[in-house]
Design goal:
The complex is a heterodimer of chains A (247) and B (237). Chain A contains 10 helices and no strands. Chain A is mainly alpha-helical and 247 residues long. Chain A has one domain: MetI-like (MetI-like fold). In chain A, helix 5 runs antiparallel to helix 7. In chain B, the strands form 2 sheets. Chain B has a 6-stranded mixed sheet with strand order 5-6-7-3-8-9, sandwiched between helices. A 3-stranded antiparallel sheet of chain B has the order 2-1-4, with helices on one face. Chain B is globular and about 55 Å long. Chain B has a single domain, classed as 3-Layer(aba) Sandwich (Rossmann fold), CATH 3.40.50.300. With 237 residues, chain B is an alpha/beta fold. Classes of the chains: A mainly alpha (247), B alpha/beta (237). Chains A and B meet through helix 5 and helix 6 of A and helix 2 of B.
Chain lengths: 247, 237
């Protein structure tokens, strides 16, 4: 317990003193996860909105695959991306392995099923409730998916935040494709794993606290958005809070 | 007068549920037709078939290709935007430019006395105001046929009167042109006030199809359909 309290005190000191090594790692983590999240959410929004409205043969199989991909371990994604980007892999010519881009690509692939599945669920519910009325107004499938995505934009904000939570809290994929190179590809989660194994608990704990802080900030943001929309639009909305970081 | 709709022996099935069975009817331009019947009798399904939202599983539907349609639902869906944008959306989806659609939307809102709420979020309007907004959206489309699925079912008496008044104005026609109105209702008083013809449905079948005066004449209704007569008695007592 004393080790924990001492580590916590040192961690707080590192945070308060704005330790440069710590800030570099945090900045890199945020940059990688924000980039991956932007790419995955952009693609996931389109794909999920389309899947929410479109009806075609094989759709159920795609949804089953999508739901399976939700549970894919980050190390498996890391391994696949590693094989793709390795010197002998099909994308080896890009030279991205052990670079920022490799980590973004891995996290994008990890987050894409989350963004797609959450969007699909939101849009499909909206389509079931209101799609008929939009059809009555003359909206085809594509237009309905766009209109419903726009109409459900505050619910989809949760998707964005859940995706970011998933990206910033994973360790397996960035460890494999980034290599945890000091000052280059080291991010919060890989640093926590390394410092813990080295016994440098204060830095690991400081990073852990910041990671929790980021998730806390996101949850607070969801709550603020919900209250703001309830006040502006006069109706209760259910925006679930995102779960905590999972390493 | 020309037929707006001609439905021949239409069946509709939803899985195991037979929603409509052998429905045949003709509706002429300018008619105001009420669909009555108990819950689950097929009124809403028939409206959806006529509007093209539900294809018949068997039988044939012929619509006048020139006739434009609009439909109002019991709980109208409003996008999370202003009342004006919600009206403009309907026009934009039919190919009008957005700027022009917004101008016309304002005129339609004025017609249902909601111009002062144009910039207000549509979802913050009351139930009655939202139904009037939905009527404005339909009005803006300048339809030849207006279909309404229990438009006043969830409204208070005051809002009900306002919407009924607007329905009557709609039925009276736009720009000297007759509008065909087809509405489902449980409110026989409303049917009496607004309809020129009443179709009674039971378990997906049309059991009576009469001019409104004949429908409320117990002897004539008894002759046409004893089941419809029982329904009317049950509703009126």
């Amino acid at each position: 317990m004393s080790t924990f309290s001492e580590s916590a005190a040192t961690a707080l000191q590192l945070i308060v003193s704005l330790d440069s090594a710590l800030l570099a790692i945090v900045g890199r983590s945020l940059a990688v996860s924000a980039s991956a999240c932007a790419l995955a959410c952009g693609a996931g929004l389109m794909l999920g909105a389309w899947l929410g409205v479109a009806r075609f043969a094989g759709r159920d199989a795609i949804l089953t695959l999508l739901n399976t991909l939700l549970a894919i371990p980050s190390v498996v994604v890391g391994l696949v991306v590693y094989l793709l980007l390795s010197r002998t892999g099909p994308l080896g010519y890009l030279g991205w392995l052990f670079n920022f881009q490799a980590m973004v690509l891995a996290q994008t692939l990890l987050v894409l099923p989350v963004a797609t599945a959450l969007t699909r669920q939101v849009i499909e519910d909206a389509e079931n409730n209101h799609g008929e009325q939009l059809r009555s107004l003359g909206a085809g499938s594509l237009m309905r998916s766009l209109l419903l995505a726009w109409d459900e934009r505050y619910a989809l904000l949760t998707m964005l935040m859940a995706s970011f939570g998933r990206a910033i809290s994973e360790v397996g994929a960035v460890m494999i494709v980034g290599g945890n190179i000091d000052g280059f590809t080291r991010v919060m989660t890989t640093a926590i794993a390394l410092e813990t194994s080295k016994g440098d608990l204060p830095l690991a704990l400081a990073l852990g606290l910041i990671l929790l802080g980021v998730v806390l900030l996101l949850n607070a943001l969801i709550a603020i958005v919900r209250r703001w929309r309830e006040r502006a639009e006069g109706g209760a909305m259910s925006l679930p809070a995102i779960s905590g970081a999972t390493l | 007068m020309s037929n707006v709709y001609e439905l021949q022996s239409a069946d509709v099935r939803f899985g195991r549920l037979q929603a409509l069975t052998g429905v045949s009817l003709r509706i002429q331009a300018g008619e105001s037709v009420a669909l009555v019947g108990a819950n689950g009798s097929g009124k809403s399904t028939l409206l959806r078939v006529l509007h093209g939202l539900v294809p018949p599983s068997a039988g044939r539907l012929h619509c006048d290709p020139q006739a434009t349609q609009a439909m109002l639902f019991q709980r109208p869906f409003m996008l999370r935007t202003s009342a004006r944008n919600n009206v403009a959306l309907g026009l934009w989806l039919r190919g009008m430019r957005w700027a022009q659609a917004k101008t016309q939307a304002l005129a339609a809102l004025a017609r249902v006395e909601l111009a002062h709420r144009a910039q207000q979020s549509a979802r913050t309007l009351s139930g009655g105001q939202q139904q009037r907004l939905a009527l404005a959206r339909a009005w803006a489309l300048n339809p030849d046929v207006l279909l309404l699925d229990e438009p006043t079912a969830s409204l208070d008496p005051h809002a009900k009167r306002e919407v009924e008044q607007l329905m009557a104005e709609f039925a009276a026609g736009q720009d000297g042109r007759a509008v065909t109105v087809i509405f489902a209702s449980h409110n026989l008083g409303q049917v009496k006030r607004l309809a020129t013809r009443v179709i009674y449905l039971e378990q997906g079948r049309v059991l009576a199809d009469l001019p409104v005066n004949d429908f409320f004449d117990s002897a004539k209704l008894q002759l046409a359909s004893p089941a419809a007569q029982l329904f009317v008695k049950g509703e009126l007592v």
